[in-house]
């Protein structure tokens, strides 16, 4: 609950180096929080990054109160994400402006553009403060309290004139539009590319083509029943159960709900099946991107996805939009007969090693693929951290960061498995990480099946005793995240004492990965750019929300 604590209280070790800049402290459910001046953002964040080691700006949340605007920087350590701090920056309603965090954390540039676009907060010294999800000609800020939803958005040509200005990097470069409707952009992603001959001089990703107001819809839904169906739709690549878990973890911690161990095992098993579902799609479509044509690898990927989808359909009743998790557990127990269900899973797992060998023979051993992916799309570890990259994209650059191990939830800390990393930091390494993660997911699923087979029948509790209507205490705030197939999916929730959130913020991992594309593509060739986009495994529904 957000409440002021006087500076005479014990100072948290993370706060001590910036104590002179702290106006007050608050208690968020996940981390201590400090309130600072809007003109000291860069000073405070630089100190926290350099002296305290908070090198991961996981998320930036903007919101409006009756008397002020507020920006919250959710900071963590890559080495230990349980070491986290929320930095709260209030600004007056009359002039909502503060320093930009982008000079300290480059990833904050896109987050702050979103805050400006939707809420209306401006950031001084921002490198490129303009709208990011909505067109530049949009009138007003949709998440502000005084936004007029009935105003027309039809504008004259004068409003569009500056959008047609020549913004080339240099006089000798050529502008190339790639997307938004192009198979190699993996969704409605538009790239403004500047070419110097056949090399990429700069890339400006243009997102927002599938913005669906997911945060606003969640703010209108009830905690208990109406929000859970939405997370499946953020990533339709198959990671739906993992997305549901992100919301469940945040809401359960917010409402102090303890999930039974039996339900945690089911969640863990289902989540790893979802991870395989997503990785199979990533590998299959990457074969199309890089090797070309309707390859055997693509058909194998679809074949193996079908097997996983059959298992998940038996478990959840759905093949993609699962809506299986419930606050406090899962919707129902395993299908009957249980023995047949377990046998179906084991049959898939028994065939998987042979199939993965085929994937490696066809892809990672393929000379054409190696030529196109080794040493292309290079992303150094420090650059990955600077842009908030997580998941396979970060781990392929040697960033040993996985929330399943580093900030444990579910049943992961009771099982034997390993975090997969590669050192190459290139397109090839990202492919290797996903294929190797499928092996680790198989290990986790096998152990879960063993546990579920032997679980005493009278102790198979699938849900905690959750009230029909949840109303967390007013001004309770939390940021929680899980490790989805693409990386850290975080949810910030602020309650106002009602059964719907006052603020619901979604931190999608692919949002940061698309932002980092400009760093990865510079100096490479157009075919390299195609291979790099595919290696990110981007789902634009998760980027735009």
TrEMBL record:
It is a peripheral membrane protein. The keyword Cell membrane applies. Coiled coil: none annotated. It is found in: Cell membrane. Keywords: Cell membrane, Membrane, Multifunctional enzyme, NAD, Transport, Ubiquinone. GO terms for cellular component: plasma membrane. It comes from the Archaea. Residues 34-151 form the NADH:ubiquinone oxidoreductase 30kDa subunit domain. One of its GO terms (molecular function) is NAD binding. Residues 292-545 form the NADH-quinone oxidoreductase subunit D domain. Pfam families: Complex1_30kDa (PF00329), Complex1_49kDa (PF00346). InterPro entries: NADH_Q_OxRdtase_suD (IPR001135), NADH_quin_OxRdtase_su_C/D-like (IPR037232), NADH_UbQ_OxRdtase_30kDa_su (IPR001268), NADH_UbQ_OxRdtase_CS (IPR020396), NDH1_su_D/H (IPR022885), NiFe-Hase_large (IPR029014). It catalyses: a quinone + NADH + 5 H(+)(in) = a quinol + NAD(+) + 4 H(+)(out). In the C-terminal section; belongs to the complex I 49 kDa subunit family. NDH-1 is composed of 13 different subunits. Subunits NuoB, CD, E, F, and G constitute the peripheral sector of the complex. This is NADH dehydrogenase subunit CD (Ubiquinone). It comes from Haloarcula amylolytica JCM 13557.
